[in-house]
Design goal:
two-stranded antiparallel ribbon, about 10% strand, mainly alpha, about 45% helix, 4 helices
Length: about 110
């Protein structure tokens, strides 16, 4: 499994889109694809944005120590984004008035 497939499968599961290995058939062409493949464009867009770390990410990575293993520095930088998201989006009401994590309800579900 490639890294891209691993990330797309995670996105598919996180959004309760479908089971990652579910097969979809395009109505016009009849082309088959796995559900996780629908997430390739959005995962690519996120990865492109992650190529440029923020100042906070750099500081956090440096905080791991200059002699720290690269994976510790990388994890510290990514943890910056995750912790920011946890504090910013925690316990927001979704469009149905239910208390939930804000990102669990896709924006299109509110229309």
């Amino acid at each position: 499994m490639t890294d891209m497939e691993r990330l797309c499968r995670a996105a598919c599961k996180a959004e309760n889109f479908a089971e990652p290995d579910e097969i979809f058939v395009e109505a016009v062409s009849g082309k088959e694809s796995y559900a996780w493949e629908a997430h390739i464009p959005s995962v690519r867009a996120v990865l492109k944005e992650l190529r440029e770390p923020t100042k906070e990410m750099i500081v956090r990575g440096q905080g791991a120590g200059y002699d720290a293993p690269m994976e510790d520095i990388y994890k510290a930088m990514i943890d910056t984004i995750l912790q920011e998201a946890d504090s910013q989006f925690e316990k927001k009401d979704n469009c149905y008035g239910q208390e939930t994590k804000a990102l669990q309800t896709p924006p299109w579900a509110c229309f």
